[in-house]
Amino acid sequence: MLGGLGNLTNLMKQAKQMQSQWGDMQKDILARRFEGEAGGGAVVVTVDGRGAMVDIKISPNAIGDVELLEDLIKGAMSMATRKSGETMQEEITKMTGGLNIPGLAEMFGGGPATSG
Q: What is the rounded CA–CA span in Å between residue 115 and residue 9?
């Protein structure tokens, strides 16, 4: 009977330690910056760990064709957010030892675990 209580106490300690590690990982990822570029660097978008845009640089040479510029911005943004999401997923995989926990990336502000 007491053996079960010991296991429960140990499990609670592990859960508390893991919670602390999750918090540290989340702070680290949210502080990171991820760049995506399109058009050979004509457009460069920088996002944070959540995939929110924090900066955009547009080369003066890219300004001529509005539709092309729109496509370049979308492409650069997509690349940057994909990098952010992939990094989040890699860190979660390290923390969980490869155990897939659905919705975990979203819980920490990241995008869906699967990207298309």
A: 38
For residue 50, give every residue at least 6 positions away whose Cβ sits within 8 Å of its Cβ, in sequence order, or none: 30, 84, 109, 110
d(CA 8, CA 23) in angstroms, rounded, equals 23
Q: How far is CA 98 from CA 17, 55, 61, 89, 93, in A?
A: 18, 33, 45, 10, 5
Is residue 49 within 8 Å of 87, Cβ to Cβ? yes
Q: What are the extents of the domains in the chain?
A: 31-107
Superfamily of domain 31-107: Nucleoid-associated protein YbaB-like domain (3.30.1310.10)
Question: Is 69 within 8 Å of 89 (Cβ atoms)?
Answer: no
pLDDT band of residue 13 (cuts 50, 70, 90) is confident
Judged against a pLDDT cut of 90, whether residue 3 lies above it is answered with no
**Residue tagged 């990098």 (tokens):** 83
**pTM, rounded to two decimals:** 0.68
